[in-house]
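Convert to structure. Protein one:
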Amino acid sequence: MELICPICGSTLHREGKSWCCERAHSFDIARQGYVNLLPVQQKHSLHPGDTREQVLSRRSFLETGAYAPIVRGVCEAAQRADGHGEILDVGCGEGYYGTKAAQVLGSSLTGLDISKEAVRCAAAKYKDATWICGTASHLPVADHAAGVLMSMFALTMPEEFHRVLKKDGIFIQVLAAQDHLMGLKSIIYPEILLKEKDSVPELPGFALVESKPLSFEFTAQGEQIRNLLSMTPHFWRISAEGAARLEQTTVLHDRASVVINVYRPEYTL
Protein backbone atom coordinates (compact mmCIF):
# COMPACT_ATOMS: atom_id res chain seq x y z
CA MET A 1 0.00 0.00 0.00
CA GLU A 2 1.33 3.44 -0.88
CA LEU A 3 2.27 5.36 2.24
CA ILE A 4 2.73 9.10 2.59
CA CYS A 5 4.89 11.18 4.90
CA PRO A 6 2.90 12.32 7.95
CA ILE A 7 4.86 15.57 7.98
CA CYS A 8 4.78 16.81 4.37
CA GLY A 9 2.38 14.40 2.60
CA SER A 10 4.79 13.26 -0.11
CA THR A 11 5.20 9.59 -1.04
CA LEU A 12 7.27 7.37 1.23
CA HIS A 13 9.73 4.86 -0.21
CA ARG A 14 11.33 2.05 1.69
CA GLU A 15 15.10 2.31 1.76
CA GLY A 16 16.72 -0.47 3.74
CA LYS A 17 15.43 -0.24 7.30
CA SER A 18 13.69 3.12 6.89
CA TRP A 19 10.80 4.77 5.09
CA CYS A 20 11.92 8.04 3.46
CA CYS A 21 10.34 10.83 1.41
CA GLU A 22 11.76 13.22 -1.18
CA ARG A 23 12.00 15.99 1.40
CA ALA A 24 14.41 13.91 3.48
CA HIS A 25 12.01 12.97 6.25
CA SER A 26 13.00 9.52 7.44
CA PHE A 27 11.22 6.99 9.68
CA ASP A 28 13.12 3.98 10.97
CA ILE A 29 11.58 0.51 10.97
CA ALA A 30 11.64 -0.88 14.51
CA ARG A 31 13.26 -4.19 15.34
CA GLN A 32 9.84 -5.85 15.52
CA GLY A 33 9.00 -4.63 12.00
CA TYR A 34 6.61 -1.67 12.44
CA VAL A 35 7.17 1.98 11.56
CA ASN A 36 6.14 4.96 13.68
CA LEU A 37 4.35 7.51 11.47
CA LEU A 38 2.77 9.38 14.38
CA PRO A 39 4.48 12.77 14.75
CA VAL A 40 4.34 14.42 18.14
CA GLN A 41 1.96 17.13 16.91
CA GLN A 42 -0.65 14.45 16.14
CA LYS A 43 -0.53 12.90 19.61
CA HIS A 44 -3.19 13.70 22.20
CA SER A 45 -1.12 12.23 25.04
CA LEU A 46 2.41 11.02 25.70
CA HIS A 47 1.45 7.36 25.20
CA PRO A 48 -1.86 7.26 23.30
CA GLY A 49 -3.93 4.14 22.83
CA ASP A 50 -3.90 0.82 24.64
CA THR A 51 -1.21 -0.16 27.10
CA ARG A 52 0.96 -3.23 26.70
CA GLU A 53 -1.10 -4.98 29.37
CA GLN A 54 -4.33 -4.33 27.46
CA VAL A 55 -2.81 -5.43 24.17
CA LEU A 56 -1.55 -8.73 25.59
CA SER A 57 -4.88 -9.33 27.34
CA ARG A 58 -6.74 -8.80 24.06
CA ARG A 59 -4.43 -11.17 22.22
CA SER A 60 -4.88 -13.85 24.87
CA PHE A 61 -8.67 -13.59 24.73
CA LEU A 62 -9.02 -13.43 20.95
CA GLU A 63 -6.74 -16.40 20.44
CA THR A 64 -9.21 -18.56 22.36
CA GLY A 65 -11.43 -18.25 19.28
CA ALA A 66 -14.33 -16.83 21.27
CA TYR A 67 -14.81 -13.99 18.76
CA ALA A 68 -14.13 -16.07 15.63
CA PRO A 69 -17.76 -15.58 14.43
CA ILE A 70 -17.02 -11.86 14.05
CA VAL A 71 -14.12 -12.59 11.70
CA ARG A 72 -16.29 -14.93 9.67
CA GLY A 73 -19.05 -12.32 9.51
CA VAL A 74 -16.66 -9.65 8.28
CA CYS A 75 -15.15 -11.91 5.61
CA GLU A 76 -18.57 -13.02 4.39
CA ALA A 77 -19.71 -9.40 4.20
CA ALA A 78 -16.62 -8.48 2.19
CA GLN A 79 -17.19 -11.35 -0.20
CA ARG A 80 -20.86 -10.43 -0.73
CA ALA A 81 -19.80 -6.87 -1.54
CA ASP A 82 -17.03 -8.09 -3.88
CA GLY A 83 -14.37 -6.57 -1.67
CA HIS A 84 -10.94 -6.86 -3.23
CA GLY A 85 -7.58 -5.16 -3.22
CA GLU A 86 -5.31 -4.26 -0.35
CA ILE A 87 -6.78 -4.22 3.15
CA LEU A 88 -6.29 -1.30 5.52
CA ASP A 89 -7.23 -2.14 9.11
CA VAL A 90 -7.60 1.13 11.02
CA GLY A 91 -7.40 0.59 14.77
CA CYS A 92 -5.84 -2.82 14.14
CA GLY A 93 -4.84 -3.55 17.72
CA GLU A 94 -2.60 -6.58 18.03
CA GLY A 95 -3.51 -7.70 14.49
CA TYR A 96 -5.97 -10.57 15.03
CA TYR A 97 -8.89 -9.37 12.90
CA GLY A 98 -6.88 -7.93 10.02
CA THR A 99 -4.60 -10.92 9.56
CA LYS A 100 -7.49 -13.38 9.66
CA ALA A 101 -9.41 -11.35 7.07
CA ALA A 102 -6.35 -11.02 4.83
CA GLN A 103 -5.85 -14.79 4.87
CA VAL A 104 -9.46 -15.51 3.93
CA LEU A 105 -9.69 -12.79 1.26
CA GLY A 106 -6.22 -13.47 -0.14
CA SER A 107 -5.19 -9.82 0.17
CA SER A 108 -2.19 -7.95 1.49
CA LEU A 109 -2.65 -6.12 4.78
CA THR A 110 -1.64 -2.80 6.25
CA GLY A 111 -2.56 -2.36 9.90
CA LEU A 112 -2.57 0.97 11.72
CA ASP A 113 -3.09 1.81 15.37
CA ILE A 114 -2.36 4.83 17.54
CA SER A 115 -0.96 2.50 20.21
CA LYS A 116 2.71 1.79 19.67
CA GLU A 117 2.37 -1.22 21.96
CA ALA A 118 -0.37 -2.65 19.73
CA VAL A 119 1.54 -2.43 16.45
CA ARG A 120 4.72 -3.60 18.13
CA CYS A 121 2.86 -6.72 19.27
CA ALA A 122 1.27 -7.20 15.84
CA ALA A 123 4.53 -6.82 13.94
CA ALA A 124 6.39 -9.22 16.22
CA LYS A 125 3.94 -12.03 15.45
CA TYR A 126 2.54 -11.36 11.97
CA LYS A 127 5.39 -10.78 9.53
CA ASP A 128 3.41 -10.77 6.27
CA ALA A 129 1.91 -7.32 6.73
CA THR A 130 2.82 -3.65 7.03
CA TRP A 131 2.31 -2.29 10.55
CA ILE A 132 2.10 1.43 11.29
CA CYS A 133 1.78 3.49 14.42
CA GLY A 134 -0.43 6.36 13.28
CA THR A 135 -3.74 8.11 13.78
CA ALA A 136 -7.04 7.57 11.99
CA SER A 137 -7.58 11.32 11.77
CA HIS A 138 -4.45 11.77 9.61
CA LEU A 139 -3.89 8.46 7.83
CA PRO A 140 -0.36 8.25 6.35
CA VAL A 141 -1.83 6.49 3.31
CA ALA A 142 -2.10 7.76 -0.26
CA ASP A 143 -5.42 8.74 -1.84
CA HIS A 144 -7.45 5.78 -3.14
CA ALA A 145 -4.87 3.21 -1.99
CA ALA A 146 -7.09 0.77 -0.08
CA GLY A 147 -9.55 -1.70 -1.59
CA VAL A 148 -11.05 -2.77 1.74
CA LEU A 149 -10.97 -0.61 4.85
CA MET A 150 -11.81 -2.22 8.20
CA SER A 151 -12.72 -0.56 11.49
CA MET A 152 -13.30 -3.07 14.29
CA PHE A 153 -14.82 -1.45 17.37
CA ALA A 154 -12.77 1.64 16.53
CA LEU A 155 -13.27 5.29 15.61
CA THR A 156 -14.73 6.14 12.22
CA MET A 157 -13.29 9.13 10.37
CA PRO A 158 -15.50 9.41 7.27
CA GLU A 159 -13.52 12.09 5.45
CA GLU A 160 -10.18 10.31 5.82
CA PHE A 161 -11.67 6.91 5.08
CA HIS A 162 -13.27 8.29 1.92
CA ARG A 163 -9.94 9.78 0.83
CA VAL A 164 -7.91 6.57 1.12
CA LEU A 165 -10.50 4.16 -0.30
CA LYS A 166 -10.49 3.22 -3.96
CA LYS A 167 -13.57 4.43 -5.82
CA ASP A 168 -14.84 0.84 -6.00
CA GLY A 169 -13.63 -0.01 -2.51
CA ILE A 170 -15.65 -0.90 0.57
CA PHE A 171 -15.59 0.15 4.19
CA ILE A 172 -16.49 -2.50 6.76
CA GLN A 173 -17.44 -1.19 10.17
CA VAL A 174 -18.07 -3.36 13.22
CA LEU A 175 -19.88 -1.75 16.15
CA ALA A 176 -21.04 -3.13 19.46
CA ALA A 177 -24.83 -3.39 19.66
CA GLN A 178 -26.79 -2.10 22.63
CA ASP A 179 -27.07 -5.56 24.20
CA HIS A 180 -23.38 -6.47 23.74
CA LEU A 181 -21.83 -8.24 26.76
CA MET A 182 -24.82 -7.87 29.06
CA GLY A 183 -23.45 -10.65 31.26
CA LEU A 184 -20.23 -8.76 31.91
CA LYS A 185 -22.12 -5.51 32.49
CA SER A 186 -24.48 -7.15 34.97
CA ILE A 187 -21.50 -8.11 37.12
CA ILE A 188 -19.49 -4.91 37.07
CA TYR A 189 -22.35 -2.39 37.32
CA PRO A 190 -24.98 -2.23 40.07
CA GLU A 191 -27.49 -1.03 37.49
CA ILE A 192 -27.43 -1.18 33.68
CA LEU A 193 -28.63 1.98 31.98
CA LEU A 194 -29.53 1.30 28.36
CA LYS A 195 -28.82 4.32 26.19
CA GLU A 196 -30.02 4.84 22.65
CA LYS A 197 -27.27 3.72 20.30
CA ASP A 198 -26.96 4.37 16.58
CA SER A 199 -25.55 1.11 15.29
CA VAL A 200 -26.06 1.98 11.61
CA PRO A 201 -24.78 5.55 11.35
CA GLU A 202 -25.13 7.70 8.26
CA LEU A 203 -21.64 8.57 7.08
CA PRO A 204 -21.04 11.61 4.89
CA GLY A 205 -19.57 10.55 1.56
CA PHE A 206 -20.70 6.93 1.92
CA ALA A 207 -23.69 4.83 0.90
CA LEU A 208 -24.77 1.89 3.05
CA VAL A 209 -24.54 -1.42 1.17
CA GLU A 210 -25.78 -3.70 3.94
CA SER A 211 -26.12 -3.91 7.70
CA LYS A 212 -26.27 -7.26 9.46
CA PRO A 213 -26.61 -7.93 13.19
CA LEU A 214 -24.58 -10.80 14.60
CA SER A 215 -25.06 -12.40 18.01
CA PHE A 216 -23.53 -15.48 19.55
CA GLU A 217 -22.90 -16.97 22.97
CA PHE A 218 -19.50 -17.72 24.45
CA THR A 219 -17.95 -18.72 27.76
CA ALA A 220 -14.90 -17.18 29.43
CA GLN A 221 -13.17 -18.62 32.46
CA GLY A 222 -10.63 -17.40 34.99
CA GLU A 223 -8.11 -14.91 33.64
CA GLN A 224 -9.91 -14.69 30.29
CA ILE A 225 -12.75 -12.85 32.06
CA ARG A 226 -10.32 -10.11 33.08
CA ASN A 227 -8.81 -10.16 29.60
CA LEU A 228 -12.26 -9.60 28.11
CA LEU A 229 -12.83 -6.60 30.38
CA SER A 230 -9.55 -5.01 29.28
CA MET A 231 -10.74 -5.08 25.63
CA THR A 232 -13.78 -2.95 26.40
CA PRO A 233 -14.43 0.70 27.38
CA HIS A 234 -15.66 -0.67 30.71
CA PHE A 235 -12.00 -1.17 31.63
CA TRP A 236 -11.81 2.60 32.20
CA ARG A 237 -15.18 2.91 33.95
CA ILE A 238 -15.27 0.00 36.38
CA SER A 239 -15.52 0.85 40.07
CA ALA A 240 -13.59 -0.85 42.87
CA GLU A 241 -16.78 -2.65 43.84
CA GLY A 242 -17.37 -3.85 40.28
CA ALA A 243 -13.77 -5.03 40.00
CA ALA A 244 -14.16 -6.99 43.23
CA ARG A 245 -17.30 -8.71 41.96
CA LEU A 246 -15.59 -9.58 38.69
CA GLU A 247 -12.57 -10.95 40.56
CA GLN A 248 -14.88 -13.38 42.34
CA THR A 249 -16.37 -14.58 39.03
CA THR A 250 -14.78 -17.82 37.82
CA VAL A 251 -17.02 -18.57 34.83
CA LEU A 252 -18.81 -16.06 32.61
CA HIS A 253 -21.50 -17.13 30.15
CA ASP A 254 -22.20 -14.15 27.91
CA ARG A 255 -23.47 -13.05 24.52
CA ALA A 256 -21.58 -10.96 22.01
CA SER A 257 -23.86 -8.75 19.94
CA VAL A 258 -22.47 -6.61 17.13
CA VAL A 259 -23.53 -4.96 13.89
CA ILE A 260 -21.51 -5.35 10.69
CA ASN A 261 -22.02 -2.41 8.33
CA VAL A 262 -20.69 -2.25 4.78
CA TYR A 263 -20.40 1.08 2.96
CA ARG A 264 -19.21 2.26 -0.45
CA PRO A 265 -17.76 5.70 -1.13
CA GLU A 266 -20.06 8.10 -3.00
CA TYR A 267 -18.97 10.80 -5.39
CA THR A 268 -20.95 13.85 -6.44
CA LEU A 269 -20.84 14.99 -10.06
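Protein two, convert as well:
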Amino acid sequence: MVYSTAKKISAKSFVKKYGIEPEDAELLDSLHLVKVGLATAHRSFDIATDKTLLDSISYEIMSLNKKYEYYLRRCKERGLVGSVDFAGIAKLF
Protein backbone atom coordinates (compact mmCIF):
# COMPACT_ATOMS: atom_id res chain seq x y z
CA MET A 1 0.00 0.00 0.00
CA VAL A 2 1.18 3.48 -0.74
CA TYR A 3 0.91 4.86 2.77
CA SER A 4 3.30 2.29 4.19
CA THR A 5 5.73 3.08 1.37
CA ALA A 6 5.38 6.78 2.12
CA LYS A 7 6.26 6.15 5.76
CA LYS A 8 9.52 4.45 4.79
CA ILE A 9 10.89 7.57 3.15
CA SER A 10 10.44 11.18 4.18
CA ALA A 11 7.68 13.23 2.61
CA LYS A 12 10.28 15.48 0.96
CA SER A 13 12.03 12.50 -0.61
CA PHE A 14 8.71 11.07 -1.74
CA VAL A 15 7.73 14.31 -3.48
CA LYS A 16 11.16 14.60 -5.08
CA LYS A 17 11.26 10.96 -6.23
CA TYR A 18 7.67 10.56 -7.49
CA GLY A 19 6.58 14.17 -8.05
CA ILE A 20 3.45 13.95 -5.89
CA GLU A 21 2.62 14.28 -2.22
CA PRO A 22 2.25 11.01 -0.24
CA GLU A 23 -1.41 11.83 0.51
CA ASP A 24 -2.06 12.36 -3.19
CA ALA A 25 -0.41 9.04 -4.01
CA GLU A 26 -2.63 7.38 -1.40
CA LEU A 27 -5.75 8.84 -3.03
CA LEU A 28 -4.65 7.77 -6.51
CA ASP A 29 -3.82 4.28 -5.27
CA SER A 30 -7.21 3.97 -3.55
CA LEU A 31 -8.99 5.13 -6.70
CA HIS A 32 -7.07 2.60 -8.76
CA LEU A 33 -7.82 -0.26 -6.33
CA VAL A 34 -11.55 0.53 -6.38
CA LYS A 35 -11.46 0.63 -10.19
CA VAL A 36 -9.84 -2.82 -10.24
CA GLY A 37 -12.42 -4.08 -7.71
CA LEU A 38 -15.25 -2.82 -9.90
CA ALA A 39 -13.85 -4.62 -12.94
CA THR A 40 -13.58 -7.83 -10.92
CA ALA A 41 -17.12 -7.48 -9.54
CA HIS A 42 -18.51 -6.92 -13.04
CA ARG A 43 -16.75 -10.06 -14.30
CA SER A 44 -18.14 -12.01 -11.34
CA PHE A 45 -21.63 -10.72 -12.10
CA ASP A 46 -21.30 -11.87 -15.72
CA ILE A 47 -20.54 -15.46 -14.74
CA ALA A 48 -22.76 -15.86 -11.67
CA THR A 49 -25.97 -17.86 -12.01
CA ASP A 50 -27.39 -18.04 -8.49
CA LYS A 51 -29.94 -15.32 -7.66
CA THR A 52 -28.59 -14.80 -4.14
CA LEU A 53 -25.05 -14.46 -5.44
CA LEU A 54 -26.20 -12.01 -8.12
CA ASP A 55 -27.91 -9.90 -5.44
CA SER A 56 -24.74 -9.90 -3.35
CA ILE A 57 -22.57 -8.88 -6.29
CA SER A 58 -25.04 -6.15 -7.22
CA TYR A 59 -24.72 -4.64 -3.74
CA GLU A 60 -20.94 -4.93 -3.96
CA ILE A 61 -20.96 -3.07 -7.29
CA MET A 62 -23.16 -0.34 -5.83
CA SER A 63 -20.84 -0.01 -2.84
CA LEU A 64 -17.73 0.15 -5.01
CA ASN A 65 -19.39 2.75 -7.25
CA LYS A 66 -19.97 4.97 -4.20
CA LYS A 67 -16.34 4.52 -3.12
CA TYR A 68 -15.19 5.35 -6.65
CA GLU A 69 -17.31 8.52 -6.66
CA TYR A 70 -15.82 9.52 -3.30
CA TYR A 71 -12.19 8.98 -4.30
CA LEU A 72 -12.74 10.59 -7.70
CA ARG A 73 -14.27 13.67 -6.04
CA ARG A 74 -11.34 13.88 -3.60
CA CYS A 75 -8.84 13.55 -6.45
CA LYS A 76 -10.61 16.28 -8.44
CA GLU A 77 -10.58 18.56 -5.39
CA ARG A 78 -6.80 18.11 -5.14
CA GLY A 79 -6.34 18.59 -8.90
CA LEU A 80 -5.07 15.05 -9.46
CA VAL A 81 -7.49 13.85 -12.13
CA GLY A 82 -6.81 14.59 -15.75
CA SER A 83 -4.13 12.70 -17.55
CA VAL A 84 -3.42 10.29 -14.70
CA ASP A 85 -1.73 7.03 -15.63
CA PHE A 86 -3.18 4.72 -12.97
CA ALA A 87 -1.18 1.76 -14.18
CA GLY A 88 2.01 3.79 -13.93
CA ILE A 89 1.15 4.99 -10.41
CA ALA A 90 0.33 1.44 -9.32
CA LYS A 91 3.69 0.20 -10.59
CA LEU A 92 5.49 2.73 -8.40
CA PHE A 93 4.38 0.88 -5.30
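The first helix runs from residue 2 to 8. The mean pLDDT is 79.
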